[in-house]
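Students often ask why we bother encoding 3D structure as a string. The short answer is that it lets us treat folding as translation between two languages. Here is a chain of 871 residues written in the first language.
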Amino acid sequence: SSEEQYDTQGFDVEVKQQLRQARHYFMTGLITRFATGQDSVETQMRLLSKLADHALETALQIAEMQLFQEYGAKPEGRMTVIGMGKLGGYELNLSSDIDLMFVYPCEGEFENRRGKSISHQKYFTKLGQKLISYLDDVTGDGFVFRVDMRLRPWGQSGALAINRDAFINYYENHGREWERYAMMKARPVAGAVTQGDQLLEQLQPFIYRRYIDYSVIQSLREMKRLISREVLRKGMQDNIKLGQGGIREVEFFVQALQMVRGGIEFELRDSRLKAALEKLEDIQLVPAQDRAQLWTGYLFLRQLEHALQALQDRQTQILPQDVLSQSRIAWFMGFADWPSFYAELQRITGQVHAIFQDLFAEPEAPKSEQKQESPWQGFWTTDLDELDESTTEDLASGFANRCVAPLKAFKNSRDVLGMLAKSHSQLDAIMPPLIQHMAEMDLSAAQIEQVLAPIKAMTHRTIYLSLLQDQPKVLQRMVQLCSTSPWISRLIFEHPALLDELINAETLFSSLDKAQLQDELRQQLLRIPEDDVEQQLLTLRYFKLAHSLRVAASEVMGSLSVMHVSDSLTWLAEVLVDAALKLATAHVQEKYGCPADEQSQSQPIRFIVLAYGKLGGIELSYSSDLDLVFVYDAGASGMTNGARSIEVERYYIRLGQRLVHVFNSQTALGTLYEVDTRLRPSGASGLLVTSLQAYKKYQFEHAWTWEHQALVRSRAIAGEAETVQAFNTIRHEVLGQQREPQALKEDVLKMREKMREHLGSKAAECFDIKQDKGGIVDIEFLVQYLVLREAHQHGKITRWTDNVRQLDALAQANVLSQAQAQQLKQHYLSYRAKLHQLALAGEGRIVSDDQYHTERQQVSAIWERVFNLSN
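And here it is in the second language, the structure alphabet:
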């Protein structure tokens, strides 16, 4: 009725008056405390933001009550009000707008008191309109906060309120680069706050890419260029927000680094500028001095912004021109006069702009590159079918002629032809220097193809093209490494995110010891929420890929020996196995608790991982799988003490299964390692996880000779210390048994002959470095045979699991002569070095028969002597 409408209007008038008068009361006290130095600018920003939160929640509740009075019903669930910009970061100033978005739970309908259906869309749109009216309408008492809704999906043309599913769909399918930047500051400020937190958590992959995102720098550089152009066009050089060294440059600097690294550095995902800046210093992305200067400058500029807005009670960041206002601002800022204040302002903005420029300055090639850029620029942009001899003669004619065919194939490939205009311009920028590097190295046609392969993988992933454009040294190192090693080329082709590892030469060409690897991985995993299993798996995989690349880069540049390469790859695998076991254990514990005694007291998790083969022998290579065996010591049988209690034996089986799952799960970065568990007792037909007692019984009573040979190269690499010690004792006892010499010799020779027959090269003109006579496996079998034959007399030879130290131990025990041991070691290392070289070249283990004649003859001679075959 008209009477009801009149009452509603009267209520709204009263609400608006009360809200505005409360705002004036609060603001008067706030400005007074600020002007008299009682509150810092940080305190002011926080209090203003909390005022906005409180005003929004109050106005929303009143609006909800009003609509309930009107409809007599309401939909289930509340609307979430999301604050953006300065409100989202708790950084409001005295005259800030508040940027908002409205999200409601789901589409649907409800009936009002008259039985009429009302859609959720209509209800929440009306609710949002009423909320805005309560705060934004200008009455005789002014306003509470100016409300800006332009950041919502689809902007002003989009719905005022949007349902949760449509909200997520928009950002996943239509979100633009600047919206990623805007969403970094988003936080739920009123309404269904908990649901809002969950909503924003779902959008984290949109805001922060799951890799290091260098495209951000170029995007923000372009955004800043547009702002600077507008500042110049409108003559706003004295704008302390948008001008050089202003507030926006501090914000851009911090948020750019957050977006670049936030995909892997979870602690950077913070809407508060101060907290984000401190975390950037903690992870050594920003030097302490730069952090201090940026934050001090930011506070000074925000305090000045407060002063300007308190003086005029309007949103402004422009310095005043009249003398009286200048004097007031200088006094407000604590200076005796305007000139002294202005000099300090110039000093601070100069510092901020210098730091900003270090990050956002346009990349500039060295002068030496600039001089040689022009001919290769023309070479790349010319139709390669129309190149004549005079064109190539002006360049490096031999290389130029060689590169035409691979470049033409690359240029005409579907990947390149299908590129967007922006991406193509980036490609055009990096190709001339890339060709220049290839020319300087005088690459062959095959090497040119190795270099171009990763570039082809980046044609539709502009973040990597941006990195190569901004970081000339990365481009140069990529050419150097990919041309040298097809293995590295393929690795970067499959995982372009690894380009980030090429930025810092100091880390790229240095290897870490096991303790350093453990510490680095531990820190990375600590940054990930415990329930984010996907990110944990991705972190393990990226860690492996990155450090494998570092080892390979060091090897191809000649700074690592074959022993050090194998050590590094073995340490890397051990660290990852240990981390995977911890993740698997946490998962199983959450579901089933821990093994417990009769009083339900937790017992240690007595589970260990045994490494066999190359990992056990500390001889891992780049593409090695992991031969693993899982053993547990249950003690007295019992149950677990979790909400879902199960038998301890089943618990350890579940732990083993979960561990294999951590290794084998397919992710965007592939699997972690190929894991082979067939060396466990009874092989593939046996249980995945074996009790320590059953393992011991099997080794003493049922194991074949070849299984004891495998035990020679086995060791515990992860798990509970007491169980590790128990395994070491069992291994020593099993290997130390006295064996019947003739039966042992026959078993070893029979197994070796079977392997040669099935795995050898069989071609007279070829030599299989690993499997053919006189190769690696012959040396390994010699060592294993001698350990099994002699360990009952020389117990110390069971200590080591790698062939090199086992040969030393056999020599010290006079089982082999020093000369024999030295020859075998030398040839063994030579073979392994060749295998590493072949792996990096993307080739197998077969070489021509004219290689390694001396080595093969000497190994075979020792073989015949040890096995007494000369008779």
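Translate back mentally: The longest helix spans residues 2-35. Keep this in mind for the problem set.
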